[in-house]
Write a structure and sequence with these properties.
It is built from 8 helices and 6 strands, in the order ααβααβαββααββα. By secondary structure, the chain is mainly alpha-helical. One of its GO terms (cellular component) is plasma membrane.
Length: 215
């Protein structure tokens, strides 16, 4: 019972931390920091034209232009329409430099790549060892793997940005439907363990009864 209480508290705390955790990296505060991070820079056609036009003597402009990824998301829209759409959707992180908004797709990269299978995760646990270090490590990996896998699938079809990101706080929301596969797996494990315990208890009682009858 005590182990179940500990696990319940741990599970609730873990879910809360996942729900409240930020989905964006620390903001980039300068163009130098943006270039130092060596990440792709996303420019709408208007900005790409500006940075590529007569940029001699303008610090950083050539490097920005050379490393650009031209965005076709706003093709055919005016400058102000593009900026309004970016501000409204808030699906791109960026920094401003001399009044220009330098954008970078940031949401997906905040989740580090998780190699799940190579991690050592025990196939079984000793009895009464729910507080064991290896169990927590395994449980963390299962939670992270499930959340990240779900996020990547949602992100692939643009559902993550559209339905699961708080636009005001730029926080990725974890809902119970995303936790359901993990919780079902955990529940099934406990049911199997409970069945095995009951079976062991029945076998023990039957063996004890037969031994007493034999005497």
């Amino acid at each position: 019972m005590f182990s179940s209480m500990i696990l319940n508290i741990y599970l609730q705390g873990r879910i809360i931390s996942l729900i409240n955790g930020p989905s964006y990296e620390q903001p980039i505060k300068s163009i130098e920091e943006l270039l130092e991070k060596n990440i792709a820079i996303k420019l709408i056609p208007t900005l790409a034209f500006y940075f590529g036009y007569d940029n001699k003597g303008l610090e950083y402009y050539q490097e920005i232009y050379d490393r650009r990824i031209e965005s076709t998301d706003w093709a055919g829209e005016t400058w102000f329409e593009s900026m309004n759409k970016i501000s409204r959707d808030r699906n791109i992180a960026g920094t401003t430099y001399q009044g220009f908004l330098i954008m970078r797709p940031n949401l997906q990269s905040t989740f580090s790549t998780i190699e799940f299978l190579p991690y050592p995760h025990p196939a079984g646990m000793p009895k009464n060892y729910y507080m064991h270090k290896e169990f927590y490590e395994w449980f963390n990996q299962m939670i992270e793997h499930g959340i990240v896998t779900k996020f990547l699938k949602l992100y692939e079809f643009s559902y993550a940005l559209q339905y699961y990101v708080e636009s005001s706080s730029r926080i990725y929301k974890v809902t119970m439907e995303q936790m359901e596969p993990i919780l079902l797996m955990l529940l099934s494990g406990y049911l199997v363990a409970l069945f095995a315990f009951i079976l062991e208890l029945v076998i023990y009682k039957v063996t004890q009864f037969l031994q007493q009858r034999a005497i």
